[in-house]
Amino acid sequence: MKSIIHIDLDSFFVSCERLLDNRLNGRPVLIGGTSDRGVVASCSYEARAFGIHSAMPMKMARQLCPEAVVIRGNSGTYSKFSDMVTDIVKEDSPLFEKSSIDEFYIDATGMDRFFGCYKWGQELRQRIIRETGLPISFALSTSKTVAKVGTGEAKPNNHREIPQGTEKPFLAPLSIKRIPMVGDQTYRLLRSMGVEKVKTVQEMPIELLERVMGKNGTSLWKKAQGIDNTPVEPWHERKSISIERTFENDTSDMVKLESIIRAMAENLAYQLRNGSRLTACVSVRIRYSDFQTHSRQLRIPYTASDHVLIDTAIALFRQLFDRRVLLRLVGVRFSHLVGGGEQMSLFDESGPLLQLYNAMDRMRNRFGQDAVKRAVAMGSKGIGHSGNPFDGQPVVIPAHRRA
Amino acid sequence: MKFIVSSQLLVRNLQSLFGVINPSNTLPILDNFLFSVGKDTLTVSASDLETSMTTTLQITSKDEGVVAIPARILLDLLKSFPDTPITFSVNTDTKAVRLTSEYGEYNVAGLKGEDFPKAPEVAGASSITVPSDVLARAIAKTVFATGNDDLRPVMSGVYFELKEDGLSFVATDAHKLVKYSCSDFKAEHGASFIMPKKPLNQLKNVLANEELDVTVTYNDTNASFSFGEVQLTCRLIEGRYPNYEAVIPKENPNVLTINRQAFLGSVKRVSYFSNKTTHQVKLKIAGSELQVSAEDPDFSNNADERLTCSFKGNDMTIGFNSRFLVEMLANLDTDEVILEMSEPNRAGILTPAESPIESEHVLMLVMPVMIND
Q1: What is the pLDDT of residue A314?
Q2: Residue B109: CA atoms inside 13 Å, Cβ hemisphere, count?
Q3: Total structural domains in chain A?
Q4: Is residue B337 very low, low, confident or very high in pLDDT (cuts 50, 70, 90)?
Q5: What is the average per-residue pLDDT within A273-278?
Q6: How high is the pLDDT of residue A402?
Q7: CATH code at B279?
Q8: Which of A165, B282, B315, B333 is the most buried (most CB within 10 A)?
Q9: Are B208 and B199 in contact (CB under 8 A)?
Q10: Are A117 and A253 members of one domain?
Q11: Residue B259 has pLDDT above 90, yes or no
Q12: So what's the pLDDT on residue A403?
C-alpha cells in the first residue's frame, strides 16, 4: 500500500505578500486582477469570512468587503517563494510531483521505517515553515485523491492522517464538491440527481454513474470509494503552449487584434525554440462579448519559424472572426509538440531566417523578452513570457489572470 | 461476340495494366478493363481518367466488338489457372460475359464498352525516342524524391527537361532534390513538362523487364509513352516548376568523400535512436573523422558512431533528416560518394564519386535541419 502526502500552501499568494509586508497580517487581503474584469486569484481567511472565494469577480468581492486590501500580485515573486519550497521538498522526499505553484504530492512509501510517514511529514512541514515562513497544510493517505481531500479538511495551517482502511468513512460525510474532479458542471448534474454527500455516490451502483457520465462516472465512483491508482509523476510533459488575453474593454479594432495575435504567435514561437521544440498544430480561440467562444485549428508541417506560425495564426483568426460583435478574448495555442530542429526548405529563405530568429532569441534571453520584436507587435506589451516552458514544471498561471 | 485467349498471356498483360486502376472509383466503369476485339487482335485498356494504358495481344477471334469486364474478379480468376485456353462469349445485347475453361464456366456482368472514357489524343505533339533501360533508370533515380504536398502539386511529379544537349529529370519535395541528366540523347527542340508520379511508377514496373525503344510523345497537356504493344497516355501536371538551378549552392568549400555502404549503414543504425517524428541525426566532421549521432531524450535513447573519411575544408557540425540521407544513399550505386557542404544552414550536395555510366550525371541536394548546440 502506498503512502501519499499532499501538501498545500495556505492562501499562498496572500502568505507571500504578508512576508513582504507584515502590515497585511490580520487584515482581509484580495489578490487578483484589479480591473473590473479581474477575478480573485487568492484571498486571506479574513476575507473568506465575508463570503469571498477565489475565482469570484473582483468587483463583487470589493462590494462584499470594501475595506479589503487589493493587490494585483506579482507571479515572479510567488514563483520564487514556490521554488524555495520546491527545493526543500526535493531535498527531503524520495519522489514528488509539483502539481501547481502551491501544491505538491509526495510518494512517501518506504519512509515509515522508524517513526512512520506521518511523523516524517510533520517534520517536513515544520522545516518548510521554519525556513520559508509560509503556512502550510498536509494530509497523508493511501492515494492522491484522498490525500488532497484530506488537506482541504485539515486547512488552515494544520495536518491530518487518513490511515488505510478509513478512506471510505472519511470521505462519506463530505460534500461531493470536495472530490477533485467535481467541477461546477458535474456538481450541478449530481445535485440534480439528488446526490449531495459522497456517501450517496459510494452506495450507488457503478453502472448508474457510468450511464450518466460515461468514463468519468467510473472514475468518479472509484475516487468516491477512495480508490485512485494514479502515480506521483515527477515530470509534467507539456502537450501544448498557449497565450490568452482578455481585454479591459471589448474591441473589434482589427489593427489592434491582429497585432496582439502576431505578438502572441511570435512569443510562443520564441518559447518553442527556447525549448528546442517544433509544433504541428496552430489553434486560435476567440470569445465574443456575449461569451460565445469559437476556436479553429490547422495542422501544418513541423516548424518553429515565426513567419509560418504568425501567418497561420492570422489566417485562422481572419476565418474565425466573422460576427459583427465585439471580442473580449483572443488566444493562440501551439500543440502536437515534438523535440528537434527545424527542417529547412530549398525554395524559401528558411536557412537565413532561422539564423535571424536565433540571433533574436539570444537578444531576448539576454535583455528580456521585449528586447526585440516585430514593429507591428510593439504596441502589445507584456504578452507572453521568456524562459523555457519545457522544464517539467507545472504551468504557472499569472496571479492577476487566474480565471 | 466470342474469342479465345491463353490465360497466361492474358494475365501477364492484365497485371501490368491493373496498376493504373484506382482502388476506389467514383465512376464505376473505371473498375473495369476495356476489351476491344478486332480480327485476331485484342486491345485491353485501363484508366483512372488521369492515366490510361493500353496493350494489344494476338488472339483467335472472328467477331469484333467492345465490352468492359470487371477487373478484380477477372484477374483473380485468371491468376488461379495454369496455362489454359479461355473462351470469352459476350452477349452483345445484355453484355453478360461467359468465360469457359476446361474446368468449368463463369458468368460475370459486363458493361457497355462505349461508355469507357477514351484516352486523350496527344495532338500537335513532339516526340523523342529513348531506350527503355535509360528511361527506367531515370525514373528509378528520381521518383522517390517527389513530394506529397497537395498544396504544391508541381512537386508531386518529375520534371522532364528535354534539351538539345541532353535530357534531365528533376524531382524535389522542397527538402531534397534529385537531378538525373543523361547526355547521350538529345531533343530536337527544347521542351519541358511535369509528369505525375503514378504513371511513372507504372512505367518503371513495366519497363523493368523490357529492352525496347520507348517513344515519348508530348504536347502542353498530355504525354504518351509507346513501346512494343503498350501505350500509356497521361495528363501532365500544370504549373511552373520551381527554379531549381538557383538553389544549387555554387561555393562548397567543405568536401567529404566516404564509402557509401559504410555511411549508409551508420546513418541507418543511428537513426533508430533518433526522434521518431523528426528523424534528426547530427554529422560532426573533424579532420578525417565523421561522427554520426542521434538522440531522443523522451525515451533516453542515443547513439553515436565514428567513421573514417577524407575531408577537405573546415570542421563542421550539421544536422539532417536521416530518412532523406538513407533514401538518397540507398538510391546511389557507387562505392564512394561525395558530400559537399558550405554552411550548416545551406543545402548539402551528394554525388557519386565516379559515374558507373559515362554519360549520366546524378546530383542530389538535401537541406539540413537546424541544430541547437
Answers
A1: 95
A2: 3
A3: 3
A4: very high
A5: 90
A6: 43
A7: 3.10.150.10
A8: B282
A9: no
A10: no
A11: yes
A12: 40
**Out of B174, B244, B277, closest to residue A345 by CB:** B174
Closest CA to A121 of A3, A246, A206: A3
- Same domain? B76 vs B156: no
Would you say the ipTM is above 0.95? no
List the CATH number of the domain containing A92: 3.30.70.270
- Check if the beta carbon of residue A270 is closer than 8 Å to that of residue A361: yes
Structural domain of residue B54, as residue ranges?
2-115
Judge contact between A148 and A130, C-beta under 8 A.
no
- Mean pLDDT (whole number) for B295-313: 92
pLDDT in tens, A366-389: 988 888 888 888 877 667 666 677
Last residue of a domain, one of A131, A162, A193: A162
- Does the CA dihedral B283-B286-B290-B292 come out positive or negative? negative
Q: How confident is the model at residue A397 (pLDDT cuts 50, 70, 90)?
A: low
* Sequence-ordered list of residues with C-beta below 8 angstroms from that of A364, at least 6 positions apart, any chain: A270, A371, A372, A386
Return the CATH number at A301. Answer: 3.30.1490.100
Q: Domain boundary at B115, B145, B161, which?
A: B115
Smallest Cβ–Cβ distance between B367 and the set A302, A339, A343 belongs to A343
Element (H, E) at A283: strand A277-288
Domain coverage including residue A326? 240-401
Domain annotation covers residue B31:
yes
pLDDT for B84-134, tens place per residue? 999 999 998 899 999 999 999 999 999 999 999 988 888 888 889 999 988
Can you give the CATH number for the domain in which A178 is found? Answer: 1.10.150.20
Chain A residues with CB inside 8 Å of B345's CB?
344, 351-352, 354-355
**Same domain, residue pair B40 and B69:** yes
Cβ–Cβ below 8 Å for A347 and B280: no
Residue pLDDT, tens place only, A122-147: 999 999 999 999 999 999 999 999 99
Q: Which of B52, B54, B45, B48 is nearest to B26 (CA)?
A: B48
Judge whether A214 is closer than 8 Å to chain B, CB to CB.
no
The mean pLDDT of chain B is 91
CB contact under 8 A, B345 and A352: yes
CB A147 within 8 A of CB A134: no
Give me the phi and psi of A40, to 5 degrees please: -75, 120
Instruction: Look at residues A202, A232, A262 and tell me which one is the last residue of a structural domain.
Output: A232
Per-residue pLDDT band at A206 (split at 50, 70, 90): confident
- Is there a single domain that holds both residue A25 and residue A149? yes
CB contact under 8 A, B343 and A352: no
Mean pLDDT of A283-310: 93
Domain membership of residue B62 (yes or no) is yes
Kind plus residue range of the DSSP H or E element containing A350: helix A350-367
Q: Are residues B204 and B285 in the same domain?
A: no
Same domain, B134 and B88: no
Q: What is the pLDDT of residues A9-50, one digit of tens each?
A: 888 899 999 999 888 888 899 988 877 778 888 888 888 889
Residue B203 covered by a domain? yes
Bridge partners of A44, per DSSP, are none
Is there a domain that residue B373 lies in?
no
Q: Do B174 and A347 touch (CB under 8 A)?
A: yes
Q: Is position A342 annotated as part of the catalytic site?
A: no
Same domain, A319 and A197: no
